[in-house]
Structure prediction request, 602 residues.
Amino acid sequence: MKNLFALIAFAVGFSMNAQAGYWQQHADYMMAIDVDVENFTYSGEQSLAYTNNSPDTLQRVFYHLYYNAFKPGSGLEAASRNAYSDKRNMSKNLLSLEKDDWGDVKILSLKQDGVLIKYATKETILEVALATPLLPGKSTTLDMSFFVKVPSLVRRAGKNNSDGVAFSMAQWYPKLCEYDDQGWHANPYLGREFYGVWGDFDVTISIDKDYTVAASGYLQSPEKIGHGYAVLDPDVVHGEKISWRFIAPGVHDFSWAADPEYIHDVVPIKDGPMMHFFYKNEGPYLKSWKEFQPYAVEFLTFFSNNIGKYPYKQYSVIMAGDGGMEYAMCTFITGSGYSDYRRLLGVTSHEIAHTWFQFLLATNESKHAWMDEGFTSYIDDVALNAALNLNKTVPNDGAYKGYLRWVSSGLEEPLTTHADRFKFNQGYGASSYDKGSVFLSQLGYIIGEENLSKTLRFYFKKWAFKHPRPYDFIRCAELVSGLELDWYLMDWAQTTKQIDYQVNSIIGEGSSTKIVLKRGRQMPMPIDLLVVFKDGSSQLFNIPLTMMRGNKPLGKAVLLDSWSWAQPFYVFDLSVEKENIQEVVIDPLGFTADVNRKNNRL
Ligand SMILES: [Zn+2]
Prediction:
């Protein structure tokens, strides 16, 4: 099915060789599982064709066994118990689980090219010693038998979620860890982000005939299945179980959910994918899950237009999991808590936006959670602003508030912190979501709105399907804007330096006036400066940073001399009498996350 992957690649217009020296691993999964819906278990066979495109010889490989986290004493339980946070403490839930409700993944056998090989289960990671080292450019086939006990839903995946959905199956199979130019990423599962290998998935799920299955991937022979996918072939008589075969080409993950009470709606999008909605056939959901469907279509179309075209033929919104979580070609969203469709919109817009950053660009979320959560939060606020006609000047104003609140706590950690190792849950949220979102809107202030839009589209075109890193993104912004921007990435993402620019003084000198600005804290920023005159007129000025080596498109603004970061003060003359000046304002629209806005005007 590599051809399928190549087609997808072609469809979004990238070439695998666009970046010299770039490589990535490739993993094609063929899986078949047999589900016992009474006991919430399944046995499975997995055949994994793994291609080593790296220049390195691999002696070992690693798999994630996520469900081993869902039991007392696991790393997830300990991390949660020791977290400096009272919210979302999974430890209590994990400790109170009956043994029957613990999760478990057992590897029954593992062969490399037909030869049994050694492995060791270290909780959520399977360590495998290859019998034959995998040379650069070579492929190997790993055949595995496994048995899984589905845990109670504590976080994201499991059985019987709060809406009563039977199976919320995310991260449900032994999943190969990613190996890239920074080596293996065999992160134990501590409850946060993911990273996976691109490839083709061919998954067959045998399950009780009454269950409707929603999944990543295209259902094969839908006329033999029915369940809302197609009109059932009248010649087909289902036995006790139905085998559902899904093919998902060019993805780095595969999720599914199943329930005997799912309603399944299909909504086609013009020039876009078929949108599938799966939700429980129960009172309050029936209305809200119908009413929000046109908005879900609008969001997907909005992101397709503003980032890059969604390249698959299908996208599913599935009632499953807890809260909202993004997966390949689908999202899991809970119904309870969102019985009003307007409340559903925020989470839907966010989860669909994730498709571009978590799924299609597929940054290593564990290392760079902000490039996923932050970028997603930014564009989802922009989409909501448009869809609901909110007319906000700063669509992600909530992110500024969240970031500034956390800064004032004095507990901020840099964005470079590993997602699992933030000291505070709140810190992870304020950093990854809020500071990450502000990263983009503030970049728009630095390089101009139009350049920000171009940067997002260029970034997607250049880096979709390639696990981009922070420098890959900022280079896109540099190439689009022609400005030097590494200072912005470094100081915003790698440090906790703060922004505080001030109008220090306005000094009248006869027919002219000196305006003195001051940089109060360490973080550099160019300046948009508005001077309002007593007669009601005004003039916008732009002061670039010298180290930007240029300026953003000016519009109606007047360009002033650049400001060298090392100089704490900046002075310029205005040939106007001081008495004629009403007010001088730094960043009048509020796009910089200035820690003290009070001194921005005088
Ligand atoms: Zn998110």
Remarks:
- The pocket of zinc ion is lined by residues 350, 354, 373, 376 (CB under 6 Å).
- Confidence is low (pLDDT under 50) at residues 1-17.
